[in-house]
Specification:
The complex is a heterodimer.
Chain A lengths: L8 E5 L4 E6 L9 E6 L6 E6 L4 E2 L4 E4 L5 E6 L8 E7 L15 E6 L1
Parallel strand pairs in A: 1-9
Antiparallel strand pairs in A: 2-7, 3-4, 3-8, 5-6, 6-7, 8-9
Chain B lengths: L2 E5 L2 E4 L5 E8 L5 E7 L5 E9 L2 E4 L6 E6 L2 E6 L8 E8 L8 E2 L3 E5 L1
Classes of the chains: A mainly beta, B mainly beta.
């Protein structure tokens, strides 16, 4: 199973872009990169996922390097409500299981 | 639209007592279902997952068991709770491998005293 490495914590000023890095050097060709976040005392929330190409949705952008060994989640204009633990996950499993293995994540603190 | 329910929201139980947490999903059929636990200050640990009625896969050896008596119902149980069973229990569902966005319930905060 591909493992991910993220910084333990990061700070970001409100209104600025938050760039959260993730290393997944052992990712295999058919594994996706998923990002979730967990606001305190709530269940995790899906943000975005990608395979090879960069992806963008209403919440964030996902930049995946050409060799797919790392990626960056970008929150373009961070707000105080974006303070959360952000998990970078490589999809693990075969067939129909859909198992997601959560690591420790990055605690993002957005400051006024 | 699909919704996922968990109850109770909070629970305080003595050591050695039984446990039953329930999760139900509405608005979808044949979902994959998952139980996670998050101990205080820790990441999420996958406990069980199920791809269909009566089909349970356990991820870690533990004091807990899971059952799926109906397509959209997932139950987490224990015969005798331990102090180490305290934590935040989350149920999640997904439509399967292709659509791997997992939708999480509100969680149950269990304290074992």
């Amino acid at each position: 199973d591909a493992k991910t490495t993220q910084p333990t914590s990061m700070d970001c000023a409100e209104g600025r872009a938050a760039n959260l890095p993730c290393n997944h050097s052992t990712i295999s060709g058919n594994e996706y990169v998923y990002w979730y976040r967990q606001i305190h005392s709530q269940g995790p929330q899906y943000i975005i996922h990608g395979l090879k190409n960069n992806e963008t949705n209403e919440m964030a952008s996902l930049i995946i390097t050409e060799d797919r060994k790392s990626s960056t989640l970008i929150l373009p204009h961070a707000t105080l409500r974006d303070t959360a633990v952000y998990y970078c996950i490589v999809f693990t499993g075969s067939g129909n299981t859909g198992k997601l293995i959560f690591g420790q994540g990055t605690t993002l603190q957005v400051k006024p | 639209s699909q919704t996922i329910h968990q109850w109770p929201a909070t629970l305080v139980q003595p050591v050695g007592s039984p446990l039953s947490l329930e999760c139900t999903v509405e608005g979808t059929s044949n979902p994959n279902l998952y139980w996670y636990r998050q101990a205080a200050g820790r990441g999420l640990q996958l406990l069980f997952y199920s791809v269909g009625i009566g089909q349970i896969s356990s991820e870690v050896p533990q004091n807990l068991s899971a059952s799926r008596p109906q397509d959209r119902q997932f139950i987490l149980s224990s015969k005798k709770l331990l102090l180490s069973d305290s934590g935040f229990y989350l149920c999640a569902w997904t439509r399967g491998r292709i659509y791997n966005e997992q939708f999480f319930g509100p969680g149950t905060r269990l304290t074992v005293l």
